[in-house]
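G., the chain you wanted modeled:
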Amino acid sequence: MKVAFLKPPIGGILGLEMLTFVEPLGLECVAGALEPDGHECLIVDMRIDGESVGMDKCIRFEPAIVGLQCNFTTERNRTMVLARRVREVLPDVFIVVGGHDAARDPAWFSNPVVDCVVVGDGEVIIPALVDAVERGGSLAEVPGIAVNGATGQQHTMPAPNRGPLDELPMPARHLIKDYASEYYINFRKPLALLETARGCPYRCNFCSVWKFHEKTFREKSCERVIQELEQIDAPNVFIVDDIFWLNPRRGLEMAQQLKASGIRKYYTVQTRTDIIVRHPELIEAWAECGDLAIFLGVESVSDEGLMAVNKNNSADNNVRAIKILKDLGVGFTCNFIVDPGWERADFTKLREWIDRNTAYNSGFSVLTPLPGTDLWDSAKGNVTTHDWEMFDLIHTVLPTRLPLEEFYDEYAKLWDWSLQVRYKHRGKAKTYVQMLGALATGKVSFSAIRNGMNIAKVFSDPKTFLEAHKNQSPPSAEMPEASVPIVATVAAGASGRTVAAGAAPAGPASAQADKKSTVEAGAGPAVSA
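Predicted structure as tokens:
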């Protein structure tokens, strides 16, 4: 059976996806699970092709099933617009929506234009779904999906218990070979994604990853990781694990095997500051495996701020980790959460901390209650809009203590301040010489540098953020057009197929994400030195 996977076109108020533009690894993983069974797969990245060219590719492929990926809250409306377009030109095709956001809030996608939503690990659920569609079986027998019908949405039985990651098929990276040269992060291009683990044992209230994976944490063996790296041609690798080096012994073993393999890349990873403080030997070991840049979810400069988001870390660890990385000469990017309830003094305190710790590679996320998080459960009654494009972590969707204009004035100053701190401690000339050197050696592209510099300028202007509030939709605009309420039974799929109603509760909300969670949480355009 032919299955086409579509990544919706680029969008967003400021086009932030262009700052961190990565491959649809989730789609590659699902396709990798289908191809061994003889199914023919196609991946169309409409962020590169555009909708017109992308749809032409899809139509020529003549798929029986079309899968749409919605990883982030900001992609919701784009996904539904694309679903309607697919239904218009391919009326008999079976349409399934998956991805991080769809899995954590399948009810939002309760819409007749979509046949079903995947709410479990795609590599496990999609093969069973494709088999059911191919033989005309009952969708109610497929675990881990929410079926949309003429009368509403119905969940099937829970998804199977998650097995070892080593048992999953290899990603079908060959399906994105025509796009591979276009992906990048922090000016580094081309870029490939690598997953070595899934889940997170921590309980940050702004994050839904631990809920998706039901508080589990699973790892791939070092041998499997090396095997996947051997298939990657790109010189830059972004390891998408939400917390790298969570298992220090495994981290050291992986570094040893990586060195022995002779594979050297520019690695970007995400980890916690307390891990760095407890195990600086991990940084030393990985620095010998190639170039290394680390994304740090610092979140707050005070213990009170860390407790407020349930970070389970200390402000002292944040300072100590940065010193360790500086001493070892390893580049890092800090991310901070900006609370809409801040006063001017809070912004001043953060700016002083950045200067004092020379943390000029920094990004700033406005605290945003995303569906599927504890924060959403406690704050959803206070959100000021359901314009999902504004849930991009650089706009506030909660009331601000300061007048909105003053809040964004202070927020814009943070972006400008980090740049000024860079110039202060490293010098403007040295900064530009470094960029020119990277450009000359082909490590970055001119367009990436131009985009990054332009974003730095744009983000320093408060009008950049205020503009979106002029036309924001009220909370009553939450549901997409033609959506229907959830009911207890389902009579038929959106394509008219008869579907048996199932009475089992929803399965676990887990899905393979394209990017680590904190990319959505606002890594921003900071550059790892």
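The first helix runs from residue 25 to 34.

Shout if anything looks off.
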